[in-house]
Amino acid sequence: MKTRPAVAIVLFGLLSVAPSTALLAWQAPVHDFAKWEKEIAAIEAADREHPPTKGGIVFVGSSGIRLWKTLADDFPGYNVINRGFGGSELTDSSYFADRLVFPHEPKQIFIRAGGNDINAGRLPREVAADFAEFVRLIHGRLPDAEILFIGWNPSPARWGQTDKLLELNRLVRAMALEMPRVGYIDAASFVMGPDGLPRRELFVEDALHFSPEGYKLFAERIRPYLKK
Fold first, then answer.
1. Is 170 helix (H, G, I), strand (E, B) or coil?
2. What are the backbone angles phi and psi of residue 172, rounded to the nearest 5°?
């Protein structure tokens, strides 16, 4: 087991997005990266058999990305690569970047992770710090790559976590405004109905993941940000 990567404290100090100095004393808990080894190894094996073209667009993150089976169909004409792995947290995307991201030398990286972190009891500022570390790691090797964080949306299954998810969105957006080649995509409001609750038809039976109609609207939010 290994601990999470170091937190990018300096970024938070410059941007003043942390509500208190508590972040300075925060120590990330031990995290089990080994549980993903089988899934990551399977992705690597598939890449060896059918190597994706370099210089494309990598989507990485948790199950919302992994379950996006229509990704390539939703963005015809783009070299999109799905590297999501379900149940993962944001720091997992950093840890496995050597195997999931860097080999493809992407020009753009779309990341959607952090919801499982909040569900596990972590605070929005802690997860936002992990995003800052992800940016530092990626730009250390791919300085010209654009990184876009896809914001979180409310869901029926995790309705009680909505405030924390929206706070994570706010923190990441504030950071992105001050970072070169980093952007934020609002993907929260499209799920809401006139009654102020998430539209149930946009989710599958688990009330957490998108239905085909949900992914259709999700893709519409993201499409303007893709580079040819």
1. helix
2. -65, -40
Q: Residue 183: beta bridge partners?
A: 148
Domain boundaries, the chain: 2-18+31-225
Return phi, psi of residue 76, to 5°. Answer: -65, 145
Q: In angstroms, rounded to a whole number, what is the distance separating the alpha carbons of residues 123 and 43?
A: 30
Phi-psi region of 204 (alpha: psi -120 to 50; beta: other; left: phi over 0): beta
Q: What does each C-alpha distance from 153 to 13, 58, 183 come to in angstroms? A: 27, 21, 17
SS3 for 1-35 is CEECCCCCHHHHHHHCCCCCCHHHHCCCCEECCHH
Distance between first and last Cα of the chain: 39
What predicted TM-score, i.e. pTM, was given to this entire model? 0.86
Tell me the pLDDT tens digit for each residue of 139-194: 999 999 999 999 999 999 999 999 999 999 999 999 999 999 999 999 999 999 99
Give CATH for domain 2-18+31-225.
3.40.50.1110
